[in-house]
Amino acid sequence: MATTLKDVALKAGVSVKTVSNVVNNYPYVTDAIRLRVKAAINELQYQPNLSARYLRKGRSGILAFANPDLSNAYFSEIGQVVIEAAKARSYTVLLDHTGGERSNEQDVVRGLSPHLIDGVILSPFALEPEDLQPRQESIPIVLLGDRIYDVPYDHVTYDNVATARLATQHLLSLGRRRIAALGVQEAEARETETSRLRLRGYLEALEEAGVPLDPHLIIRGLPSFSRFYGARAMRQLLSLDTPPDAIFCFNDLLALGAMRAIFEADYRVPEDIAVVGFDDIEEGRYAVPSLTTIAPDKQKIGDLAVAFLLGRIDGTRTGPPERIEVSCQLIVRESSTLRG
Amino acid sequence: MATTLKDVALKAGVSVKTVSNVVNNYPYVTDAIRLRVKAAINELQYQPNLSARYLRKGRSGILAFANPDLSNAYFSEIGQVVIEAAKARSYTVLLDHTGGERSNEQDVVRGLSPHLIDGVILSPFALEPEDLQPRQESIPIVLLGDRIYDVPYDHVTYDNVATARLATQHLLSLGRRRIAALGVQEAEARETETSRLRLRGYLEALEEAGVPLDPHLIIRGLPSFSRFYGARAMRQLLSLDTPPDAIFCFNDLLALGAMRAIFEADYRVPEDIAVVGFDDIEEGRYAVPSLTTIAPDKQKIGDLAVAFLLGRIDGTRTGPPERIEVSCQLIVRESSTLRG
């Protein structure tokens, strides 16, 4: 027979309520009592059954964070924030890797595991708005990123156009005029929304500055935002009759791949080619040279996503879904400044 | 009332068996029929209930990969292999981030979600052997890494002593004699098993070569294997009266942090200090200079872990648990070879 709270209470010589307080990590228990209860829990191999605990309220206590690519630190860094924020509210987060495939994302929305998961934070990549029509049995969803508009879910994002313009203006302010844009990503044979918005910001900055556009400097059709495709695209740009003197990469992984290709071709960063990325992943801070980038407020993205989701789950957040934009800032590092 | 397979079959004008074949992605259905069934599924908003499908066999169809640090690409790269291998067998993988905390790891072993998960691949960090005693209701577990011995679970690992010796021998073969070891990691105030084994390999290589040991060159007490602590430890080594001429880092993130600190102090890699890491994460291949490292066979680790786990789940793998070692190889890159 399974060990119960009562067995633990008897063993520890305390009340069931006290055992419950320890199991729930409530603060009203002295350290001595806590240790005694934990010893009893260990001895009896009592399993604090979170499932049972939440199921009383019809909940599993588990959230999912579904994202296209955990090997991209942008998502794993937001994942860490989500895990911490959820933990502070006694929720566990499982990470679901969709690979950016529409069918996997559809599974997430349809509730692959409707009795397992109380709510989902979804960073969609290939999903279309029609996939996101609500259904009666739907669990709450919070969306991240710029992929989907006009859907009945809370949505945390930032202004991709303005930030891409800022990144490009920074390169213009260094006196660079042949600024490449790397790269426009495609999913299911269409440009992704994020790419489209960042490209628009780049184009707006060039136009404002009266710098003519050279279409050869825009790299399109990237299958993914990876170091590999960044390096490959950069080699293509370096083979132009007049290579670029600066490059705005649509994420940091592309930029790190591009810097590697620049190094291999014996050009210097930033003297010959200044580089700006997007995401502010930790790797860029340690790169040689360190990477100038756009830093979305990842802490706020993760915190808001969890707060919105738990609010929908526990019913404290009502009213129509909101679209919230967090701030981004330009962080200037060695890849766009000469070392003194 | 929920839509059933039968409703879909009626709508599409096919048999229930055909709908089932489409839902299960079996190959015996023509594209035309598949499209018709999918249209009916969409129209009726039928939810292919994977849970129900597996629950007939008493299974959820979900595996967990629990690991201490998804922001370390070593784990996310193995995670990718696990996801792919599981997907080929129609299993979904959820990633559980333990943060390397013993209590979280205990939760995993005790089955935080016993009705949710069919089996667990666990890469433990702080867990002690006594935490891993089997219990009647335990779900199958496969262990990765060198932390735990003599437990009743299949275990996929590699020879840390031999590979650390190999890394150190490589630096010795370059004529380096002041070779630092960075670093020994501690969990719950004890050296981790992985650290201990890698340190042993380093010491054996020095001893075989007759190179006297300078204890100042061994960095101990690292809270985690991160770029931050790698950079910090390297600054400490560079402040010695005679800094090292080579450094063996116990993982790639430490090595990448160390390379950044070497760059900031205006030393050169590899001319002044040769650097070797461990894990062969993608970042090291794109670093400037690219990072020499030890590459465990991550593909095989992930494939074996999934094969063993599914074998235990479906009962085709019987007999006592095994401990399997996969191979590792030294990959020499720019951080330990002069550019020609």
UniProtKB/TrEMBL annotation, chains A, B:
<dbReference type="GO" id="GO:0000976">
    <property type="term" value="F:transcription cis-regulatory region binding"/>
</dbReference>
<dbReference type="InterPro" id="IPR010982">
    <property type="entry name" value="Lambda_DNA-bd_dom_sf"/>
</dbReference>
<feature type="domain" description="HTH lacI-type">
    <location>
        <begin position="3"/>
        <end position="57"/>
    </location>
</feature>
<dbReference type="InterPro" id="IPR046335">
    <property type="entry name" value="LacI/GalR-like_sensor"/>
</dbReference>
<dbReference type="InterPro" id="IPR000843">
    <property type="entry name" value="HTH_LacI"/>
</dbReference>
<dbReference type="GO" id="GO:0003700">
    <property type="term" value="F:DNA-binding transcription factor activity"/>
</dbReference>
<dbReference type="Pfam" id="PF00356">
    <property type="entry name" value="LacI"/>
</dbReference>
<dbReference type="Pfam" id="PF13377">
    <property type="entry name" value="Peripla_BP_3"/>
</dbReference>
<keyword id="KW-0804">Transcription</keyword>
<keyword id="KW-0238">DNA-binding</keyword>
<protein>
    <submittedName>
        <fullName>LacI family transcriptional regulator</fullName>
    </submittedName>
</protein>
<dbReference type="InterPro" id="IPR028082">
    <property type="entry name" value="Peripla_BP_I"/>
</dbReference>
<keyword id="KW-0805">Transcription regulation</keyword>
